[in-house]
Specification:
single chain, alpha+beta, Beta-lactamase, two-stranded antiparallel ribbon, 7 helices, CubicO group peptidase (Beta-lactamase class C family), Beta-lactam-related, Diverse_Enzym_Activities
Length: 269
Protein backbone atom coordinates (compact mmCIF):
# COMPACT_ATOMS: atom_id res chain seq x y z
CA UNK A 1 0.00 0.00 0.00
CA UNK A 2 1.26 3.46 -0.92
CA UNK A 3 1.44 5.80 2.04
CA UNK A 4 -0.25 8.43 -0.12
CA UNK A 5 -3.44 6.37 -0.25
CA UNK A 6 -4.22 8.11 3.04
CA UNK A 7 -5.19 11.09 0.88
CA UNK A 8 -8.43 9.25 0.11
CA UNK A 9 -9.47 9.76 3.74
CA UNK A 10 -9.75 13.50 3.15
CA UNK A 11 -13.00 12.85 1.30
CA UNK A 12 -12.23 15.17 -1.62
CA UNK A 13 -9.75 15.32 -4.50
CA UNK A 14 -6.12 15.67 -3.45
CA UNK A 15 -2.62 14.99 -4.71
CA UNK A 16 0.82 14.71 -3.14
CA UNK A 17 4.45 14.02 -3.87
CA UNK A 18 7.19 12.73 -1.55
CA UNK A 19 10.71 13.93 -2.32
CA UNK A 20 14.12 12.76 -1.22
CA UNK A 21 17.43 14.39 -2.16
CA UNK A 22 17.54 12.26 -5.33
CA UNK A 23 14.05 13.32 -6.46
CA UNK A 24 10.54 11.88 -6.40
CA UNK A 25 10.01 8.90 -4.10
CA UNK A 26 6.25 8.58 -4.39
CA UNK A 27 3.40 10.54 -5.97
CA UNK A 28 -0.37 10.38 -6.30
CA UNK A 29 -3.06 12.44 -8.01
CA UNK A 30 -3.00 15.35 -10.43
CA UNK A 31 0.25 17.19 -9.82
CA UNK A 32 -0.15 19.39 -12.92
CA UNK A 33 -3.46 21.07 -12.05
CA UNK A 34 -2.92 24.76 -11.18
CA UNK A 35 -3.92 25.39 -7.56
CA UNK A 36 -3.93 28.50 -5.36
CA UNK A 37 -0.99 28.33 -2.96
CA UNK A 38 -2.30 31.13 -0.72
CA UNK A 39 0.00 31.44 2.33
CA UNK A 40 2.52 28.98 0.90
CA UNK A 41 3.38 32.03 -1.26
CA UNK A 42 5.13 33.49 1.79
CA UNK A 43 7.92 30.92 1.49
CA UNK A 44 8.63 32.03 -2.09
CA UNK A 45 8.77 35.61 -0.84
CA UNK A 46 11.13 34.54 1.92
CA UNK A 47 13.52 32.80 -0.46
CA UNK A 48 13.40 35.68 -2.95
CA UNK A 49 14.19 38.12 -0.14
CA UNK A 50 17.04 35.91 1.08
CA UNK A 51 18.54 36.19 -2.41
CA UNK A 52 18.33 39.98 -2.11
CA UNK A 53 20.09 39.67 1.25
CA UNK A 54 22.77 37.48 -0.28
CA UNK A 55 23.32 40.03 -3.05
CA UNK A 56 23.65 42.85 -0.52
CA UNK A 57 20.57 44.66 -1.81
CA UNK A 58 18.87 44.67 1.61
CA UNK A 59 19.73 43.89 5.22
CA UNK A 60 17.59 42.14 7.83
CA UNK A 61 18.10 45.09 10.17
CA UNK A 62 16.84 47.65 7.62
CA UNK A 63 14.07 49.77 9.17
CA UNK A 64 10.83 48.60 7.53
CA UNK A 65 7.20 48.61 8.57
CA UNK A 66 5.92 50.36 11.72
CA UNK A 67 8.20 52.40 13.98
CA UNK A 68 10.90 50.22 15.51
CA UNK A 69 10.35 47.39 13.05
CA UNK A 70 12.90 45.90 10.65
CA UNK A 71 12.78 43.69 7.58
CA UNK A 72 13.49 40.78 9.94
CA UNK A 73 10.40 41.63 12.02
CA UNK A 74 8.20 41.77 8.93
CA UNK A 75 9.32 38.43 7.49
CA UNK A 76 9.06 36.67 10.87
CA UNK A 77 5.57 37.98 11.74
CA UNK A 78 6.97 40.01 14.63
CA UNK A 79 6.32 43.58 13.45
CA UNK A 80 3.09 44.03 15.37
CA UNK A 81 0.98 44.54 12.23
CA UNK A 82 -2.60 43.31 12.10
CA UNK A 83 -3.41 40.39 9.82
CA UNK A 84 -4.31 42.44 6.73
CA UNK A 85 -3.90 46.12 7.56
CA UNK A 86 -1.32 48.72 8.46
CA UNK A 87 -2.78 49.03 11.94
CA UNK A 88 -0.61 47.64 14.72
CA UNK A 89 -1.53 45.52 17.71
CA UNK A 90 1.59 46.35 19.70
CA UNK A 91 5.25 47.29 19.36
CA UNK A 92 7.57 45.10 17.26
CA UNK A 93 9.23 42.06 18.81
CA UNK A 94 6.77 41.42 21.63
CA UNK A 95 4.51 38.74 20.15
CA UNK A 96 4.09 36.70 16.97
CA UNK A 97 1.19 38.32 15.11
CA UNK A 98 0.68 36.47 11.83
CA UNK A 99 0.34 39.18 9.18
CA UNK A 100 -0.21 39.05 5.44
CA UNK A 101 0.25 42.81 5.42
CA UNK A 102 3.67 42.47 7.04
CA UNK A 103 4.88 40.05 4.36
CA UNK A 104 3.56 42.33 1.61
CA UNK A 105 5.34 45.28 3.24
CA UNK A 106 8.60 43.27 3.31
CA UNK A 107 8.23 42.73 -0.45
CA UNK A 108 7.64 46.45 -0.97
CA UNK A 109 10.89 47.13 0.89
CA UNK A 110 12.74 44.75 -1.47
CA UNK A 111 11.13 46.48 -4.45
CA UNK A 112 12.39 49.88 -3.30
CA UNK A 113 15.89 48.53 -2.66
CA UNK A 114 16.28 46.57 -5.90
CA UNK A 115 14.27 48.68 -8.35
CA UNK A 116 12.44 45.52 -9.46
CA UNK A 117 8.76 44.77 -9.37
CA UNK A 118 8.73 42.05 -6.69
CA UNK A 119 6.90 39.56 -8.88
CA UNK A 120 9.55 40.01 -11.58
CA UNK A 121 12.23 39.52 -8.91
CA UNK A 122 10.63 36.22 -7.82
CA UNK A 123 10.36 34.98 -11.39
CA UNK A 124 13.93 35.93 -12.32
CA UNK A 125 15.65 34.86 -9.11
CA UNK A 126 13.57 31.84 -8.02
CA UNK A 127 11.02 30.51 -10.50
CA UNK A 128 13.08 30.61 -13.70
CA UNK A 129 16.23 29.00 -12.22
CA UNK A 130 14.12 26.21 -10.69
CA UNK A 131 12.13 25.55 -13.87
CA UNK A 132 8.83 26.72 -12.37
CA UNK A 133 7.47 27.70 -15.78
CA UNK A 134 3.78 27.58 -14.87
CA UNK A 135 3.92 29.75 -11.75
CA UNK A 136 1.38 32.58 -11.81
CA UNK A 137 2.51 35.17 -9.26
CA UNK A 138 -0.89 36.84 -8.96
CA UNK A 139 0.24 40.07 -7.33
CA UNK A 140 0.36 39.44 -3.56
CA UNK A 141 3.67 38.36 -2.01
CA UNK A 142 1.76 36.89 0.94
CA UNK A 143 -1.01 34.88 -0.75
CA UNK A 144 -0.98 35.39 -4.52
CA UNK A 145 0.89 32.45 -6.10
CA UNK A 146 -0.97 29.89 -8.21
CA UNK A 147 0.68 26.86 -9.76
CA UNK A 148 0.81 23.09 -10.02
CA UNK A 149 1.93 20.94 -7.11
CA UNK A 150 4.67 19.56 -9.35
CA UNK A 151 6.26 23.03 -9.34
CA UNK A 152 5.80 23.47 -5.62
CA UNK A 153 7.71 20.18 -5.49
CA UNK A 154 10.57 21.84 -7.37
CA UNK A 155 10.57 24.58 -4.75
CA UNK A 156 10.50 22.07 -1.87
CA UNK A 157 13.41 20.20 -3.46
CA UNK A 158 15.35 23.46 -3.51
CA UNK A 159 14.71 23.98 0.20
CA UNK A 160 15.84 20.40 0.84
CA UNK A 161 19.06 20.84 -1.17
CA UNK A 162 19.72 24.58 -1.69
CA UNK A 163 21.35 25.72 -4.92
CA UNK A 164 20.29 29.37 -5.00
CA UNK A 165 21.50 30.35 -1.53
CA UNK A 166 24.86 30.05 0.17
CA UNK A 167 24.72 28.13 3.48
CA UNK A 168 24.69 31.32 5.58
CA UNK A 169 21.55 32.61 3.90
CA UNK A 170 19.86 29.24 3.76
CA UNK A 171 20.25 29.04 7.53
CA UNK A 172 18.84 32.55 7.98
CA UNK A 173 15.84 31.59 5.89
CA UNK A 174 14.90 28.51 7.90
CA UNK A 175 16.14 29.38 11.42
CA UNK A 176 13.75 30.83 13.99
CA UNK A 177 13.95 34.59 14.41
CA UNK A 178 12.77 35.91 17.78
CA UNK A 179 12.43 32.23 18.73
CA UNK A 180 10.74 32.67 22.11
CA UNK A 181 7.76 34.67 20.88
CA UNK A 182 4.29 33.35 21.69
CA UNK A 183 1.54 33.64 19.11
CA UNK A 184 -1.58 32.25 17.49
CA UNK A 185 -0.94 29.71 14.73
CA UNK A 186 -3.86 30.15 12.29
CA UNK A 187 -6.11 27.11 12.49
CA UNK A 188 -4.26 25.61 15.47
CA UNK A 189 -4.51 28.13 18.28
CA UNK A 190 -1.97 29.58 20.71
CA UNK A 191 1.56 28.18 20.48
CA UNK A 192 4.20 28.75 23.17
CA UNK A 193 6.55 29.45 21.52
CA UNK A 194 5.48 29.95 17.91
CA UNK A 195 8.71 29.92 15.85
CA UNK A 196 8.97 31.30 12.31
CA UNK A 197 11.88 31.86 9.97
CA UNK A 198 11.85 34.33 7.07
CA UNK A 199 8.46 33.60 5.55
CA UNK A 200 8.72 29.96 6.62
CA UNK A 201 6.89 28.36 9.49
CA UNK A 202 9.13 26.26 11.75
CA UNK A 203 7.55 23.27 13.45
CA UNK A 204 9.40 23.45 16.75
CA UNK A 205 7.36 21.77 19.49
CA UNK A 206 3.97 23.07 18.33
CA UNK A 207 0.95 21.02 19.29
CA UNK A 208 -1.52 20.57 17.70
CA UNK A 209 0.07 20.90 14.30
CA UNK A 210 -0.51 20.00 10.65
CA UNK A 211 2.77 18.05 10.32
CA UNK A 212 3.35 14.63 11.87
CA UNK A 213 4.34 13.80 15.41
CA UNK A 214 7.44 12.19 13.88
CA UNK A 215 8.50 15.41 12.15
CA UNK A 216 11.60 16.94 13.69
CA UNK A 217 11.41 20.36 15.37
CA UNK A 218 13.58 21.71 12.52
CA UNK A 219 10.89 20.92 9.93
CA UNK A 220 9.99 23.99 7.85
CA UNK A 221 7.26 24.80 5.37
CA UNK A 222 3.78 26.29 5.29
CA UNK A 223 0.15 25.51 4.62
CA UNK A 224 -2.37 27.62 2.73
CA UNK A 225 -6.04 28.06 3.51
CA UNK A 226 -7.02 26.82 0.04
CA UNK A 227 -5.69 23.35 0.84
CA UNK A 228 -2.06 23.44 -0.33
CA UNK A 229 0.89 22.66 1.95
CA UNK A 230 4.45 21.45 2.05
CA UNK A 231 7.06 20.56 4.62
CA UNK A 232 10.77 19.85 4.46
CA UNK A 233 12.31 17.84 7.29
CA UNK A 234 16.13 18.21 7.18
CA UNK A 235 16.70 15.47 9.75
CA UNK A 236 14.65 12.94 7.79
CA UNK A 237 16.03 14.34 4.48
CA UNK A 238 12.49 14.35 3.08
CA UNK A 239 9.85 16.70 1.73
CA UNK A 240 6.10 16.24 1.37
CA UNK A 241 3.96 18.46 -0.88
CA UNK A 242 0.15 18.34 -0.87
CA UNK A 243 -2.60 19.96 -2.90
CA UNK A 244 -6.34 19.55 -2.48
CA UNK A 245 -9.66 20.74 -3.89
CA UNK A 246 -11.03 22.05 -0.61
CA UNK A 247 -10.28 24.93 1.74
CA UNK A 248 -8.25 23.92 4.80
CA UNK A 249 -10.65 22.17 7.17
CA UNK A 250 -10.98 19.58 9.92
CA UNK A 251 -10.24 16.78 7.44
CA UNK A 252 -6.84 18.33 6.72
CA UNK A 253 -6.15 18.72 10.45
CA UNK A 254 -6.93 15.05 11.04
CA UNK A 255 -5.36 13.40 7.97
CA UNK A 256 -2.26 15.49 7.28
CA UNK A 257 -0.42 14.67 10.54
CA UNK A 258 -1.10 10.94 10.02
CA UNK A 259 0.03 11.24 6.41
CA UNK A 260 3.24 12.96 7.51
CA UNK A 261 3.95 10.22 10.04
CA UNK A 262 3.29 7.50 7.44
CA UNK A 263 5.63 9.17 4.95
CA UNK A 264 8.36 9.47 7.56
CA UNK A 265 7.93 5.85 8.65
CA UNK A 266 8.25 4.67 5.06
CA UNK A 267 10.94 6.99 3.73
CA UNK A 268 13.02 8.66 6.46
CA UNK A 269 16.71 7.90 6.38
Amino acid sequence: MSTLELLDELGFEACAVVLGPEGVREQRGDLDLPRPWRSVTKTLTGLATAIALQEGRVDLDDPAGPEGSTLRHLLAHASGYFYESARTLQAPGLRRHYSNYGIDEAARHVERATGYDFGDWVLEKVADPLGMTHLDWGGSPSVGAVGPIAELGLFAAEVLRPTLLEPEWSRELTTAHFPKLVGIMPGFGKQTPNPFGLGFEIRGDKSPHWTGIRNSPSTVGHFGMRGTAFWVDPEADLALVIGSAHDFCDAHREVMPRLGDAVLAAHAR
